[in-house]
Amino acid sequence: MARFVTISPDMSEAVIQHLRNNFFVDEPLNKAVSLCERGQPHAALEGLCAATMADGLSIAAMEGDTQSLEKIHQSSDEKFNKIFTILYTVSQDLDLFNTYQLFKADATGAYSQRVCLSLGMRAVRSVRYSEYRDARGPVFTVPPPHDALAVMLREIP
Fold first, then answer.
1. This model's pTM is above 0.70
2. If you ran DSSP here, which 8-state letter would residue 95 be given?
3. For residue 50, what is the domain's CATH number?
4. What pLDDT does residue 139 have?
């Protein structure tokens, strides 16, 4: 049975390695822009993950016993900037953390959205990738069944 723990500083390297090997390459937005290869480091992406974990608000599911737009654009990686611009801009006007005590997830694919729903979360904002555009047209071409980014939350009583 899984248990949930706050990611501590001594866990962060293992979490980054896990994400590098099992998540980054398959995440729909990363995949849409070919951001990285499985198992290969991506400095900007891993730096943002490390900074997020350092805030002490990230959790990990453990088996058995075991921020701003300006910061995003400090990266010279255009593909990285595309991904985190949509994640930031879709969430920025929701003011979630001042409105609710909650658990929040940016569910970028159909499967992560289903997992969030099964955990009692709800979508508070959704943006279809085909409708998210810049001056050149759609920013992302994401394969089915992944058609939208959903900001999911579950209020904590």
1. no
2. -
3. 3.40.630.30
4. 94
